[in-house]
UniProtKB/TrEMBL annotation:
It is found in: Cell membrane. It is a multi-pass membrane protein. Keywords: Cell membrane, Membrane, Transmembrane, Transmembrane helix, Transport. This is Carbohydrate ABC transporter permease. Residues 73-265 form the ABC transmembrane type-1 domain. Belongs to the binding-protein-dependent transport system permease family. It comes from the Bacteria.
Length: 280
């Protein structure tokens, strides 16, 4: 009996800790939603309430009237989708080579992948700006997409290498016995088993490009080409005073695509990688 009570208390403690962690993660989103639905009078109250007393969509309408949010969201969507697709297409075969051919060059490449993630944005922005200027890709969504692909590729490689190594070599050897070459083995045998890894990598690349601000601020000059994170800063005045209601409404809407994409890919990410692929 005491042991059963102890296990029950431990399980309740785990669920309580998990609930607290989920509330901690959801706090920014709930705060944005609450602020977006409040009237200007409530926003200026000295005693703000969590739940709006008189919910209104005026902040949403004002946000779309003041700034070109729809056009900026389209720009961000094009750049983020392009980054996710290109990063996955490049990283998958590279990760396969690095995982299956464990040479000194492959180990050095893996180490460089890890080290490159430590480079700060400020360190690379000047040479990157000069390179894109020579290529005439400044103020271009295509140029920005290339930058995001290069920036997301190291982490995408690091993620996919582990997933490729989890695929049993016996499956590829069986395909080779049947006459399949390396490319066909990668496309027909290995790639389908990398579904969770590819989904997680695509989600990472998409969210990184969707939320990125610094490169977009420096490389995009025309108002018609600015992405959503840059346009969100327009709700802050020259003296640093934020138009809090429309800003919260626009920021809340900006988080929805990432949440929706995660919901679509959730099963692929959390699903078993090789359930039933081979007999033990």
């Amino acid at each position: 009996m005491p042991g059963r009570r102890t296990r029950g208390a431990a399980r309740a403690g785990k669920y309580a800790a998990l609930l607290g962690y989920l509330l901690f993660l959801a706090f920014p989103l709930l705060w944005l939603l609450s602020t977006a639905l409040k009237s200007p009078r409530e926003l200026g109250s000295l005693h703000p309430a969590w739940i709006p007393r008189d919910p209104t969509l005026a902040n949403v309408r004002q946000a779309f009237e003041e700034q070109p949010l729809a056009h900026a969201a389209l720009n961000s969507l094009l750049v983020a989708l392009g980054t996710a697709v290109v990063a996955v297409l490049i990283a998958t075969p590279m990760a396969y080579v690095m995982a299956r051919h464990r040479t000194r060059l492959a180990r050095a490449a893996t180490g460089w992948v890890v080290v490159s993630q430590a480079f700060p944005f400020v360190l690379v922005i000047i040479p990157l700006f000069l390179v894109l200027k020579n290529l005439r890709l400044i103020d271009s969504l295509f140029g920005l997409t290339l930058v995001y692909v290069v920036w997301a590729l190291p982490f995408a490689l690091w993620m996919l290498v582990g997933h490729v190594r989890a695929v049993p070599v016996e499956l590829e050897e069986a395909a080779a016995v049947d006459g399949a070459g390396r490319l066909r083995t990668l496309v027909s045998v290995t790639a389908p088993l990398l579904g969770p890894g590819i989904a997680a990598t695509a989600l990472f690349a998409f969210v990184t490009a969707w939320n990125e601000f610094f490169f977009a601020l420096v490389l995009l000059k025309s108002p018609g080409r600015q992405t959503l994170p840059v346009v969100l800063t327009h709700f802050i005045g020259a003296e640093g005073v934020a138009d809090l209601g429309p800003l919260a409404a626009a920021a809340f809407l900006a988080t929805l695509p990432s949440v929706a994409l995660f919901g679509l890919l959730q099963r692929r990410i959390t699903g078993g990688l090789l359930a039933g692929a081979v007999k033990s």
